[in-house]
Amino acid sequence: MPVQIAPSLLSADFARLADDIAMCEAGGADMLHVDVMDGRFVPNLTFGAKVIEAARRCSDLPLDVHLMVVEPERYFDDFARAGASILTIHVETAPHLDRQLARIRELGCKAGVTLNPATPLAMVEEVVGEIDLLLIMSVNPGFGGQRFLEYSVDRIARARRMLDAAGSRARLEVDGGITRDTILRCTRAGADTYVAGAAVFGAADPKAEIGALKRAALEVA
Length: 221
Ligand code: DX5
Ligand code: ZN
Prior knowledge:
34% of the residues lie in helices and 19% in strands. By secondary structure, it is of the alpha/beta class.
């Protein structure tokens, strides 16, 4: 599967969101990653449907919406209406995972599932046939610019085996601490899609960095 990069708008300049989104498009971004945080599931607060809708108006790129919120199902309808393409929920917030994923698909969005770094992968094993994207968190969610947790590489490899064993064609995405250095280890372990916040928006040339990350990911030995 071709490598995809989803710059995380969390690290964008909110006073110039439209410019930053245009820059991502020009740099070859495949999706835009939108981090929704509620100050409850994670210790930080970001934004909701209004910003998703604003991003939708600026771009035709798929909006990869990562819900770091308790009771995520409360937001599915609003976010789908605002233009989300993928809704990814945390298993830690989803006691009725099967029902919640079905509802996302019913709304016409792709269904993603993710887990905190310390949550066993087995938590998603039963639903791998029902998802379009499996997101491996490689930092504890809540903030951009954190250091990549090295044990994520082994989790990616095990997640890859799990998807393959189930015959799933879901994308395997990694979020947190992705840089030109960490990305290659993730691709080698079987990931194909990357969120990048600080690496893109903190780069000297953010537009060029998107391509640089893709090339770094593809340098498979
Ligand atoms: C972390 C968010 C990430 C974050 C990644 O809670 O889910 O999407 O924006 O940022 P970087 O790439 O800076 O680690
Ligand atoms: Zn995220």
